[in-house]
């Protein structure tokens, strides 16, 4: 008798996943900076800031990006600094 003893480690913890029943709740948003354990947002790192501003230069509200309030504050500060040294636009022309 040959018993295929394959045990794919699918031992995932089933946490109590509470789903907010909102219309626009698409997927679980977690703060990117919390996830990556970023303690300091470098204002010179445009690549990092870029996803958080619109093409026009506006800062995307955190309800859309999922950034937590603490990191959003850091982000805002970083973006404003980056604007001051012309790394990011204040308002780009459409
Ligand atoms: Zn965060």
Topology:
Elements: H1 32-35, H2 46-49, H3 62-65, H4 69-84
The structure holds zinc ion (ZN).
Task: Characterise this structure.
The chain is mainly alpha-helical and 94 residues long. It has a domain at 32-84: Ribosomal protein S18 (30s Ribosomal Protein S18, Irregular), CATH 4.10.640.10. It is built from four helices and no strands. The mean pLDDT is 81.
Structure, briefly:
The chain is an all-alpha fold and 94 residues long. The chain has 4 helices and no strands. It has helices at 32-35, 46-49, 62-65, 69-84.
What are the defining features of this structure?
30s Ribosomal Protein S18, binds zinc ion, globular, mainly alpha
- Estimate the helix proportion, in percent: 25-40%
Provide mean pLDDT, rounded. Answer: 81
Low-pLDDT segments, ≥5 res: none
How much is the radius of gyration in Å?
20 Å
Number of helices: 4
Query: Which ligands accompany this protein?
Result: zinc ion
| Derived structural class | mainly alpha
